[in-house]
Amino acid sequence: MPTISPIHRTPSLKKEEITKNWYIVDAEGKTLGRLCSAIAARLRGKHKPTFTPNQDCGDAIIVINAAKVKVTGNKFNLKSYHHHSLYPGGLTTVQFKDLIQSNPERIIMEGVKGMLPKSKLGHKMLTHCRVFAGSEHNLQAQKPVKLEL
User: d(Cα 35, Cα 72) in Å, to the nearest integer?
Assistant: First the structure.
């Protein structure tokens, strides 16, 4: 094996070197799965040339109009979300059509959560995603930039 010179090494970011940008994504008319995978990649930082797998080097994402996201096929009637309380008989199932009316933020969060690493780092990345059902949000102080996915 040839030796690799120090100038050609892959950079590994440290916590102090990470910069986070805030982006705002409009979910109106977007397909749920494609939107969630794009958000998860941004949260993870895979779009940056300085991507480091063991650091939280992604950006922060604000999602608006979560109630207007669409699904393809017959998923509107058939898709369901499950939660178990860890007690016997504690399975709770909620249909997509009911959840889009009562808690549309959860639909986006569940989709993005499933596409992030299942570790402490993945849970930390998920905290940088904020979802709002309508077009209004309370994060103007972060000066988010509009992002087209």
Answer: 13
* Short-list 125, 149, 122, CA closest to 63: 149
**How far apart are alpha carbons 40 and 56 in whole angstroms?**
12
Dihedrals phi, psi of 9, to nearest 5 degrees: -80, 150
**CATH of region 20-146, choose from 2.60.120.620, 3.40.50.300, 3.90.1180.10, 3.40.50.1460:** 3.90.1180.10
Give the tokens for residue 78.
Answer: 């058939």
Domain boundaries of the chain, sorted by first residue: 20-146
String of DSSP letters for 44-63: HTTTSTT--TTS----EEEE
Q: Calculate Rg over the CA atoms of the chain.
A: 18
Tens of pLDDT, residues 36-91: 999 999 999 999 988 999 999 999 999 999 999 999 999 999 999 999 999 999 99
Pairwise CA distance, residues 50 & 58, whole Å? 10
The model's pTM? 0.90
